Amino acid sequence: MDLSDSIVAYFEDLDDPRVENHNHRHKLHDLLVITLLGTICGADTWADICEFGSAKEEWLKTFLELPHGIPSHDTFSRVFSLLDAKAFEQCFSNWIDSLSIDVTNEIIAIDGKTLRGSGNSKQKNSAIHMVSAWAAENRVLLGQVKTSEKSNEITAVPELLKQLDIKDSIVTLDAMGCQTQIAKDIINKGANYVLSLKENHPTLYQDVRSIFQKGETTLYKKILHKQKIEKVKDHGRIERRRYTLISARDNLLFELRWPGLKGIGMVEVKRTVNHKTTYSTRYFLTSLDEDIDGFMRAVRQHWQIEINLHWSLDVSFNEDQSRVRLGNAAENLGIMRRIALNLIKQNKTRKVGVSAKRKRAGWDNQFLFDVLMGFKNREI
Fold it and tell me: Among residues 105, 162, 113, which one has the least CA distance to residue 135?
């Protein structure tokens, strides 16, 4: 079987971190492929990956060299701890670029996630924090940047934006990413933004809140605005969401306060669960001009990154339970999980969840190979 048309081809130029003059028993290519396939199939530790390789050895030999059989779990651990994480991440980025994903009108949600098990308090090593960009409708991870702490998201987001083609998309960020420089970067790349506004900008937050309070009092008379109401019923939960978007009659008035600002948004949510009702109000800054539908879509779909990326990594891949910490291994294995998740999400041949697809891949060699190759429409 030929892997030249798969993601594996994008890792061929990756430098082997082991000593050059050493007679390596195991090929780096084989180690990478076994790790990726094992990760797809539910192997979450080096011992799991070694067991996967042993169980699938005869099948793996049909397309891998395996000159000395399946490597030990210590070999997997050592090689991935030495592997250059930035170079590995670049291979992932090159693969994503090759997919030519159309992001026109796409909601690109940016948010961070901590790999909780990667820290070691005794050695005073902080847990790795990954800032990721998720294309909500394409259901694919576009890129990611590692930071040492959650507070460094402010510097990581501009670095991530440099890597991405976001032209004509709508970028969404939570309050941590509500920064003037980030807004400028998004506008300069030809995209729009919807940024959550909270008390980390106290003066601006109070000003926006006051504008909406005045609008409610006057029934928005002489205020350029649009409103829509959305009702959601799901598993005993009833929500009523009212979206309000206020636009400036003179855009310069808004843009003097914030780069590219054309509107301020408010979302009021009334939620009833088990006969208990709660209320919440959120405020937003946006470069969308009188586009209430775009604003609604951005607010709704921002949470896709939590559900389809972070939740999947925690629940389906047990990421928070991982205790891989040696060298670069935690970051590299984190990247491998995200590659596996991308491949699984893009396979449409089985209408089941991520966990079920991982099990099916472990049972069915053809399905596993199809996931690896990106065969989205093949009937099983």
Answer: 105
- CA 244 vs CA 22, 46, 304, 318: distances in Å: 65, 50, 22, 39
Tally helices (H) and strands (E) across the chain.
15, 9
* Cα–Cα distance, 102 to 290 (Å, whole number): 24
Element (H, E) at 81: helix 73-82
- How high is the pLDDT of residue 150? 56
Q: Tell me the per-residue pLDDT of 244-276, one tens digit each, with 9 for 90 and over.
A: 999 988 878 788 889 999 999 999 999 999 889
pTM: 0.89
> CA–CA separation, 175 vs 198, rounded Å?
6
pLDDT reported for residue 377? 41
In this prediction, residue 132 carries a pLDDT of: 94
Cα–Cα dist 17/15, whole Å: 6
Residues of the chain with pLDDT under 70: 21-23, 116-125, 148-151, 375-380
CA–CA distance, 378 with 380 (Å, rounded to integer): 6
Q: How high is the pLDDT of residue 278? A: 95
CA dihedral sign of residues 251, 253, 254, 257: positive
What is the CA angle 292-280-289, rounded to 5? 15
Tell me the C-alpha to C-alpha distance, in Å, between residue 314 and each of 34, 50, 56, 112, 192.
22, 22, 26, 13, 30
CB–CB of 375/365 below 8 Å? Answer: no
Give pLDDT tens digits for 297-337: 999 999 999 999 999 999 899 887 887 778 888 889 999 99
Helix segments in the chain, DSSP class H: 28-40, 46-55, 57-60, 73-82, 85-98, 153-163, 180-188, 202-218, 251-255, 292-301, 304, 312-315, 329-346, 354-363, 365-373
For residue 266, what is the enclosing H or E element? Answer: strand 263-273
| Tokens read off for 213 | 């309070």
Calculate the CA dihedral of residues 265, 271, 277, 281 and round it to 10 degrees: -10
Extents of the domains making up the chain: 7-96+326-373, 175-292
Residue among 48, 75, 86, 63 at smallest CA distance from 8: 63
